[in-house]
Write a structure and sequence with these properties.
Elongation Factor Tu (Ef-tu), domain 3; about 25% helix; 7-stranded mixed β-sheet; about 30% strand; binds guanosine-5'-triphosphate; binds magnesium ion; 9-stranded antiparallel β-sheet; alpha+beta; Alpha-Beta Plaits
Length: about 600
Amino acid sequence: MSTVEYRNIAIIAHVDHGKTTLVDKLLREGGAFTVREEVEERAMDSMDLEREKGITIKAKNASLHWGGKTINIVDTPGHADFGGEVERIMQMVDGVLLVVDAVDGPQAQTRFVLQKALHHGLKPIVVVNKIDREHADVHRVHDQVLELLLDLHANEEQFNCPFIYASARDGFAVRDINDPRTNMVPLFETIVSHIPPPKAHPNEPFKMLISNLDWSDYVGRIAIGRITSGTVKTGDVIWCIHKNGKREKATVGKVFEFSGMRTSESVTGEAGNIVGIAGFEELEIGETLCSSAEDEPVPFTDIDPPTLQMQFCVNDGPLAGREGKFLTSRQLRERLYKEIRMNISLKVQDTDVPNIYLVSARGELQIAILVEQMRREGFELLVSRPEVIMKQENGQKLEPFETLWVDTPQDRLGDLMQNLAGRKAQITNMHHHGDRVNLEAVIPTRGIIGFETDMVNLTGGRAVMSHMFKEYAPHCGPVASRSSGTLVSMDNGITTAFALDTLQERGKMFIKPGDEVYVGMLVGENPRAEDIPVNPTKQKHLTNMRSQGDGKGIMLEPPIVFSLEHAIEYIAQDEYVEATPKSLRLRKKILDPTKRKRENQRMAGDE
Ligand SMILES: Nc1nc2c(ncn2[C@@H]2O[C@H](COP(=O)(O)OP(=O)(O)OP(=O)(O)O)[C@@H](O)[C@H]2O)c(=O)[nH]1
Ligand SMILES: [Mg+2]
């Protein structure tokens, strides 16, 4: 096969605009699933967490044949926290399908991913998706995308890109909105005619940039990338040029190509194709595989730096070790360092304290997903509240700022504006459409932490938001943080309905009767901004009369149940989330009340 036969594309978009659904339909129509194969909707979202949350977390490859061509497709996540997954695969493809929702139009992450694609010189095809939706307005969205292309300095060729109108859900794509709506053929035709075949050199020695990594129990580490020149097959001796300049030799164990959603062993990996290569154990994304020790590495475009960081610590609470298999500092450290080899947008640092590690990421969701995966693997750990990564420049303290977009029903605008003001947001644009308002603001990243929860509460879930890193700029002073305090347990033991009945008059509870608590654990929220010690394990005094039975006649409000993400953004600086395979608890960093008080006084003295 000559390189003319390949087309390598990535599907990029804002979260939920329909990328994975589109890939699904392309794979089906491209014959990637056999007739008898039972395939679930959005089959590319194959990780448990992806299916549960309904979002894509990792970029994944698939491949199909159409019109005599092999089309390699990379599905990518649309959530801003996983932007690093999109950036890393840009050098693997020659074009992108930019999917845009026909109602919502371009959103924050549309801008981010399009900017990255244009920057890599990739040719876009715009797919205005969900045209079946009731308020679809393809003309407006068409114009908005053109505006965005202008704004992002697309070159002439990129600006004159084709537009396709589609409903991924209903399985059709059309060039003109009035064309008959039958199948995906118009999109296939546009991909083949508009996206160039890969720039590859079949007659030169083998070379490939590692764009992604995978793991298989049979062959170990697999490097995924597009072969830029030459060929590679099982048994070849090749070199890896590592990031630190070191060159290492290994024998190719296996070469895989993509076939539908799976990989199949390929006889020869050819220039232009996207393949997986097994043979090296220690590899990183951005490194080069090549045929001789003297070759030059393929330049790799660095990806955006993380903006948030938080502590990951060994679980040292009194209930540690009851549920998890992996508890020690060494296990925690190994797991974190393993993660950053696969996940280049995360960073891990050791600290002065042996059982605390600093993990840096793009956002709370990215961190929450990592913690959730670790819980499922059997880890127990403590995580702190995320803090933004500050910078010092010319003696000035700088912090990250983001552009925030919120679309809200008009009747909730006042409350939202007030909340945003407390978070030091500067409104830069406001646009009324129907009974809704579109807000644009510049806000310190610190101010975004926890905003989504507030927004959902203030609007009953009727508003949507997106945000994107803008710049580092001078620190803008204190940002309103949690206005409530907590109820902190002053006893170890099992909670009683009797005790909770009294406590619920003081605030909302996080626990129910029969839960095990410990000294320093947060058991409820105090509406006022102070922490109150409470005893949730208190028993009813038994009188001579036989007790009526504990709990009888007591009406308890249902407790607040935190999701991991919610818990992480809820806690204050002096608190941790304790995450174990089955439990999530909130606690004070320093459990002992006397020590905690002394530390608070010391901190107050320092300021
Ligand atoms: N009405 C309508 N809904 C669609 C269409 N395409 C996708 N959806 C729905 O939109 C939701 C999100 O679809 P996904 O394919 O998961 O979106 P995505 O872009 O892959 O999302 P992320 O990977 O998380 O960024 C799902 O509920 C789909 O069923 C469409 O053409 N019309
Ligand atoms: Mg998806």
